């Protein structure tokens, strides 16, 4: 089947961000009401609404409302809305009356993707993991409603239908709402199984809906972790050592305690906690603190030194993670072998809401509120540190002001820190991280070095392809942590095998017979690294996709055609590649501009992105447009899929131009958004995103828009100037970003 | 002791003069819609209006507020422009994590009040002090254009 | 003819520098006035600069009609009448850009000196007014107490005032 014919059969949902025409956004379930001046908004009181809970996952109110409990964390990706849509679809609920809330932290809500071992909102896994089971829940409750109505009406359940929160008897034209049935329905067992709809029956899935949390995110009423306020709550900040793994040796707290509002100072293993009546006093107290640090065992990671070490390691064979064919003989027979080395620095997630945890711990029980992507492990760590059985801990997952992986630390660092404070204070306390704490607090995207090589045979075809990475992964930390073993044991030892967590394969799909990918996983226990949105794909896809353009140019081939001609085994890759090239008018860049393209597939999703840009003599870049084509299988809420791609592009551009944490003899050099720049409005380019309609199972969406932006831009620079970009961020190479006033911006 | 006019209501707070307005709003008055993001006027998450002008509450000492009227996100729905901004933000699914959006909405409301038909350049000048790490800029721009075309 | 023409041309090109050789009295003043603490807001651009590298102000801050920012982002949205956030955010009374007539960027010492004295450009200030302004204006004084780890001009403020006084007493020579 030719690419064109496969393409033509697909239904394209084309949404231009700037033009915006045709984007249908229906109303969500929550009503927007301005809150009064002194208290957060309360749900509207409509009198005595009785809610009945069915199983663990949902409640139906006598007003026919549906409340869905979601085990994944809302970090901005829209998962509360997406999972509620999946449940409401199969339940045939009235979408205008649907609410979604975070579930408790309990095994029932564990993500099946992680072997149902934990709730963890990482790896773009929420919709992938919860989609089917949550639809089954909806379908089973729908069947329960039908059965209940059939019993009430004394008719055969098989003839009853459902629609928008009602059971309907088409024979008698009677109908009754789920709300009215809900009390009776409690008397019956929930059917063990129920048939799922086929995609053509969907009424909610696949439609662009307004986010359920949109109203509360525009009127200031949504309570994030940082907004939690409980009676008699104190506020603590922690003075941390200048270098990771340092410890306080001598603490002079006199000046700190003299600051009005400062109540207590506690010397802890991790640092010194200053506890005050409010954040401002705590901050002042911390500044007044005098601490001598024991840095005998502290991290001395140095960015420059580390880079030279990584680059040396590129010369040594690593652990093979993919071996296709026989690379070495092919290399020996090759007419030539081309090689390129890449380097990428540490990066901070820099989510807008600094880390924070509220704990109310009195020695016998604890209540914890925090925005976290990893509540199960956080809670287990809390139980170990506080010496409480998990049943004595009430853990509230709060909406997160951004996560990007930082709030998904399987080592639970910020909750553990807060538990140490709470154990010392034994009063309700909010442990706050300032922006500087957050920026300097480690758990960064790890630095990486990559070596690519391609061997070309006498016909100029790629006969061998190698890809070697040197990087650090949190896995090294997990192995190094005694506590983690205990946690795994506590949880029944069912956490996924650690080698499954590490996924370094770049999923190279081009038609090359001999492929070797290997990696060095550097263990540096003193240098906390963590996953960050798109994880190693950010570095490995950058290297792969830019190197591919260099190889294509040797034979004078067009980068799009070069890829297109080598995707015989990857139809979904090919489809997005063609879709992006078509939408971007590949080959017809505006005057003075060039285009670059990049392609990847991961976690059952596929994306191709085209960057069209111009570059001035002094390396100032104007991005005219970024065109993306994504196939994520079933797009549960297409508009939010588009939003994730937009989000990923901006996130990627921040990384590509600016993203760099540097360490000088162990000390992090960046502290805030002035020396750790992220993209601002005037740097945000025009975007168009093509969503390829599919009924395949949903793939991951939150991360896949990130990795291709960099190589597509670098390939456009290469096309324009011949310069090869072998390290990021671009700022270090003298590139800058022009003001990007989108030309079509005024047309919506 | 400082007496403040916040959202049309007079409040008296007993705090040190250097305590930033943001923390008085959040901690003393329990108005948590204005967010802490950077503490150095770099991100705009704390944007409130003082006498109608957007300011960064995280660096505004309470002693500098005086008799200026403070308006926060909790009250902006009672402003005709503000209500439209909120509605359009919802309709276009602008917020993602939402943390910066209070500040974005306060900045956009000030922009559209000052200039009902802003150009892209005007939008950039008014909105580039407000960081969104989720990258909702394309939709913020689209929402502002929509408001401009729809007439506020 | 040709060599003579060429040397005439060379002489002509060199002339401004030769003819406008700067005043030794003004040179230390020039070095202060062109320090980033002063120059970043005495720009000839539609925007302020920041840092010793003199980068464009980060938030796309604009000069605005009255040199105090655009209505949607006044200078005072962030800058107070004193340094705040432990000096991270600099501030002084009437914080703002100098008017374009007082732009000092890319001026030679002689040009800057002449502009400084030019009452049609300098806010109608006499030499004594200038001295008084440099001695007492809070925003000028901020340059020597800029907060954070910002660098300060090459002379301390009393030294600056004493060289400025000497220059004023000499009648403000530019050459």
From TrEMBL, chain A:
Gene3D superfamilies for the chain: Aldehyde oxidase/xanthine dehydrogenase, a/b hammerhead, Aldehyde oxidase/xanthine dehydrogenase, molybdopterin binding domain
Any one GO MF annotation of this record: oxidoreductase activity
Pfam families to which the protein is assigned, alphabetical: MoCoBD_1, MoCoBD_2
Residue intervals of the Aldehyde oxidase/xanthine dehydrogenase a/b hammerhead domain: 219-297
Domain of life: Bacteria
Protein name: Xanthine dehydrogenase family protein molybdopterin-binding subunit
Lineage: Bacteria, Pseudomonadati, Pseudomonadota, Gammaproteobacteria, Cellvibrionales
From TrEMBL, chain B:
Source taxon at top rank: Bacteria
Keyword tags: 2Fe-2S, Iron, Iron-sulfur, Metal-binding, Oxidoreductase
Residue stretches spanning the membrane: none
2Fe-2S ferredoxin-type domain span: 1-76
Single annotated GO MF: 2 iron, 2 sulfur cluster binding
Protein name: (2Fe-2S)-binding protein
Source organism per UniProt: Spongiibacter pelagi
UniProtKB/TrEMBL annotation, chain C:
This protein's UniProt keywords: Signal
Signal peptide: 1-21
Protein name, entry field: Isoquinoline 1-oxidoreductase subunit
Organism: Spongiibacter pelagi
């Amino acid at each position: 089947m030719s690419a064109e014919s496969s393409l033509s059969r697909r239904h394209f949902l084309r949404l231009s961000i700037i033009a915006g025409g045709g984007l249908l956004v229906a109303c969500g379930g929550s009503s927007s009401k301005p809150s009064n001046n002194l208290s957060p908004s309360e749900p509207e009181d409509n009198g005595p609404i009785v809610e009945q809970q069915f199983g663990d996952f949902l409640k139906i109110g006598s007003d026919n409302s549906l409340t869905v409990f979601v085990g994944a964390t809302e970090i901005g990706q829209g998962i509360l809305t997406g999972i509620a849509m999946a449940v409401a679809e199969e339940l045939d609920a009235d979408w205008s009356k649907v609410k979604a809330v975070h579930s408790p932290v309990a095994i029932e809500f564990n993500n099946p993707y992680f072997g149902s071992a934990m709730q963890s909102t990482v790896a773009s896994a929420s919709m992938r993991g919860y989609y089917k089971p949550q639809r089954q829940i909806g379908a089973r409750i729908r069947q329960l409603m039908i059965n209940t109505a059939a019993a009430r009406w004394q008719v055969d359940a098989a003839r009853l239908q459902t629609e928008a929160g009602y059971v309907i008897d088409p024979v008698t034209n009677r109908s009754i709402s789920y709300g009215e049935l809900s009390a009776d329905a409690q008397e019956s067992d929930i059917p063990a199984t129920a048939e799922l709809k086929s995609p053509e029956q969907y009424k909610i899935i696949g439609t662009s809906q307004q986010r359920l949390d949109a109203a509360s995110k525009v009127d200031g009423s949504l309570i994030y972790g940082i907004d939690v306020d409980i009676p008699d709550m104190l506020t603590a900040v922690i003075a941390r050592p200048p270098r990771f793994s340092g410890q306080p040796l001598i603490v002079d707290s006199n000046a700190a305690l003299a600051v009005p509002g400062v109540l207590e100072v506690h010397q802890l293993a991790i640092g010194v906690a200053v506890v005050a009546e409010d954040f401002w006093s705590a901050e002042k107290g911390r500044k007044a603190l005098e601490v001598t640090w024991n840095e005998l065992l502290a991290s001395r990671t140095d960015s420059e030194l580390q880079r030279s070490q990584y680059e040396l390691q590129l010369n040594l064979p690593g652990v093979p993670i993919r071996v296709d064919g026989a690379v070495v003989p092919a290399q020996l027979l090759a007419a030539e072998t081309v090689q390129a080395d890449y380097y990428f620095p540490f990066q901070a997630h820099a989510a807008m809401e600094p880390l924070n945890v509220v704990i109310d711990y009195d020695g016998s029980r604890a209540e914890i509120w925090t925005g976290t992507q990893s509540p199960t492990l956080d809670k287990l760590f809390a139980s170990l540190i506080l010496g409480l059985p998990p049943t004595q801990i009430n853990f509230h997952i709060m909406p997160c002001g951004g996560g990007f992986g930082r709030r998904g630390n399987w080592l639970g660092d910020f909750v553990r820190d807060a538990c140490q404070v709470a154990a010392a204070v034994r009063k309700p306390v909010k442990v706050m991280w300032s922006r500087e704490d957050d920026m300097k607090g480690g758990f960064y995207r790890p630095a990486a070095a990559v070596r690519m090589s391609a061997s070309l045979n006498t016909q100029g075809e790629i006969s061998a392809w190698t890809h070697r990475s040197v990087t650090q992964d949190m896995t090294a930390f997990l192995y190094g942590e005694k506590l983690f073993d205990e946690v795994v044991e506590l949880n029944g030892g069912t956490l996924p095998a650690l080698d499954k967590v590490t996924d370094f394969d770049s999923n190279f799909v081009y038609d090359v017979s001999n492929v070797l990918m290997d990696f060095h996983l550097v263990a540096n226990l003193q240098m906390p690294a963590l996953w960050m949105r798109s994880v190693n794909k950010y570095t490995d896809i950058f290297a792969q996709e830019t190197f591919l353009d260099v190889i294509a140019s040797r034979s004078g081939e067009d980068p799009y055609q070069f890829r297109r001609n080598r995707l015989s085994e990857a139809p979904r890759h090919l489809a997005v590649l063609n879709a992006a090239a078509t939408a971007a008018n590949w080959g017809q860049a505006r005057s003075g501009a060039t285009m670059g393209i990049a392609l990847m597939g991961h976690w059952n999703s596929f994306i191709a992105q085209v960057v069209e840009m111009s570059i001035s003599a002094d390396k100032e870049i104007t991005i005219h447009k970024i065109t993306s084509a994504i196939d994520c299988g079933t797009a549960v809420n297409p508009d939010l899929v588009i939003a994730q791609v937009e989000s990923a592009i901006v996130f990627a551009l921040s990384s590509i131009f600016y993203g760099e944490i540097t360490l000088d003899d162990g000390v992090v050099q960046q502290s805030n958004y002035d020396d750790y720049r992220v993209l601002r409005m005037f740097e945000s380019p025009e975007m168009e995103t093509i969503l390829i309609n599919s009924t395949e199972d949903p793939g991951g969406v939150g991360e896949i828009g990130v990795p291709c932006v960099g190589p597509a831009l670098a390939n456009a620079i290469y096309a324009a100037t011949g310069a090869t970009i072998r390290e990021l961020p671009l700022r270090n190479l003298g590139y800058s970003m022009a003001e990007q006033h989108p030309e079509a911006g005024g047309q919506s | 002791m400082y007496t403040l006019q916040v959202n049309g209501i007079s409040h008296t707070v007993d705090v040190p003069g250097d305590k930033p307005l943001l923390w008085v709003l959040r901690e003393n008055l329990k108005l948590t819609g204005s967010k802490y993001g950077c503490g150095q006027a770099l991100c705009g998450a704390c944007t409130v209006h003082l006498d109608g002008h957007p300011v960064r509450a995280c660096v505004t000492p309470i002693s500098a507020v005086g008799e200026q009227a403070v308006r926060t996100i909790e009250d902006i729905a009672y402003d005709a422009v503000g209500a439209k901004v909120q509605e359009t933000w919802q309709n276009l699914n602008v917020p993602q994590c939402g943390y910066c959006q209070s500040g974005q909405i306060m900045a956009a409301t000030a922009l559209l009040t000052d200039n009902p038909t802003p150009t892209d350049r005007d939008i950039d000048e008014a909105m580039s002090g407000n960081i969104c790490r989720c990258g909702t800029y394309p939709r913020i721009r689209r929402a502002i254009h929509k408001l401009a075309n729809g007439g506020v | 003819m040709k060599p003579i023409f060429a040397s005439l041309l060379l002489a002509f090109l060199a002339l401004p520098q030769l003819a406008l050789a700067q005043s030794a009295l003004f040179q230390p003043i020039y070095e202060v006035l062109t320090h980033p603490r002063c120059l970043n807001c005495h720009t000839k651009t539609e925007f302020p600069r920041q840092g010793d590298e003199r980068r464009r102000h980060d938030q796309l801050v604009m000069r605005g009609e009255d040199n105090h920012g655009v209505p949607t982002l006044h200078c005072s949205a962030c800058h107070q009448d004193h340094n705040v956030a432990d000096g991270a955010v600099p501030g002084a009374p009437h914080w703002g850009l100098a008017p374009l007539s007082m732009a000092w960027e890319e001026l030679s010492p002689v040009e800057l000196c002449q502009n400084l004295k030019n009452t049609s450009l300098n806010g109608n200030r006499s030499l004594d007014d200038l001295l008084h302004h440099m001695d007492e204006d809070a925003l000028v004084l901020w340059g020597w107490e800029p907060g954070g780890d910002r660098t300060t001009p090459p002379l301390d403020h009393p030294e600056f005032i004493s060289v400025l006084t000497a220059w004023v007493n000499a009648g403000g020579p530019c050459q």
